[in-house]
Amino acid sequence: MKPSVFEYLRPESIDEALRMLAEDPDDSKILAGGQSLIPVLNFRMASPERLIDINRLTDLAYLRSADGELRIGALTRHAMLEKSGLIERRWPLLKAAAHWVAHAAIRNRGTIGGSVSHADSAAELPVALTALNASIVARSSTRGARLIPASEFFVGTMTTAMEPDEILVEIRVPALPAGHGYAFEEISRRNGDFGLAGAGVVLSIDAEGKVSDPRISLLGAAQTPLRATEAEERLAGAVADEQAIDDAVRLACEAAEPIGDLHGSADYRRSLIGVVVRRGINNAVTRAKAGRDATPQHNR
Ligand SMILES: Cc1cc2nc3c(=O)[nH]c(=O)nc-3n(C[C@H](O)[C@H](O)[C@H](O)COP(=O)(O)OP(=O)(O)OC[C@H]3O[C@@H](n4cnc5c(N)ncnc54)[C@H](O)[C@@H]3O)c2cc1C
């Protein structure tokens, strides 16, 4: 199908984009990479009267660290996350998650701002950002910028805490301890498909071999990314032995409320959650042990 008729606007600055959006927020849509919006328009699942193309706002495409935290501009493409040395060294979970997003052609166009704003419940980057305790900077022309924690940003399937007159401009990710372990695990029917189940895990292992600051964020377990807090509490301060990992996997599965569809029943999806959480914890622990042994004491 073809989209309904719309007016196409191409601002040259973020202020101009915000002004255009404020003129008619309920009937306008921001166009970033177009990898989700264009199919939505073609299927006429949405028929906005105006498209505001932000692709000329190239100063929104950046990755930098400031005061130890990572700042990601909204127009940063998924491929930039995959290829950045800064991400690989300091926030490798993001690289691992980006790699699971669709195919290379889509990762070259799709943006992190688009993925987070679109808030598909099967999208990898929102899950990784929830594990990383990230915050989202949303701006409007009248109220300025506000910071929304990822834990409050994702409200439901394709629903966020942003107001219609706001543009997502930046994502901020706090520093992680040197030598932390991470893993992003996913199961999908075919390579590049949206995942049936996934898990983003970060944790550290202290000098006594105990887990510290474990974070487990689930994909496909709810309508939003879901932190498996009971599983995290079971691991925190424990030695990551078989019993602790079994318990954490069970608690994560109990917390999950997957919805069955033609790709798999709710029970099947819950069992997949168990598989990805177990893989995620095991791989994160292995990396954390290697990272701890390789990190000088004063850098921890
Ligand atoms: C075949 C196919 C397979 C895919 N598989 C996956 C997958 O496995 N995992 C996955 O995560 N994604 C997948 N995607 C989606 C892809 O990752 C998109 O890039 C992403 O969802 C949206 O990013 P975008 O920049 O293309 O946004 P767009 O499509 O341009 O916009 C998406 C939505 O976000 C809004 N928006 C965009 N930017 C902003 C902003 N800065 N502020 C406010 N609102 C904004 C738009 O108005 C629109 O509503 C797939 C897409 C396709 C076509």
Task: Please sum up the structure shown.
It comes from Rhodococcus rhodochrous J45. This protein has 300 residues and is of the alpha+beta class. It is 37% helix and 24% strand.
Tell me about this structure.
This is Carbon-monoxide dehydrogenase medium subunit/6-hydroxypseudooxynicotine dehydrogenase subunit alpha. The protein is α+β, with helices and mostly antiparallel strands. It folds into three domains: 7-53, 2-Layer Sandwich (Uridine Diphospho-n-acetylenolpyruvylglucosamine Reductase, domain 2); 61-173, Uridine Diphospho-n-acetylenolpyruvylglucosamine Reductase, domain 3 (2-Layer Sandwich); 181-294, 2-Layer Sandwich (Enolase-like, domain 1), CATH 3.30.390. The chain contains twelve helices and 14 strands. The protein has a five-stranded antiparallel sheet with strand order 4-5-10-6-7. Strand 4 and strand 5 form a beta hairpin. The chain is globular and about 60 Å long. The N and C termini lie far apart (55 Å). It binds flavin-adenine dinucleotide. Flavin-adenine dinucleotide (FAD) binds next to strand 2, helix 2, helix 7 and strand 10.
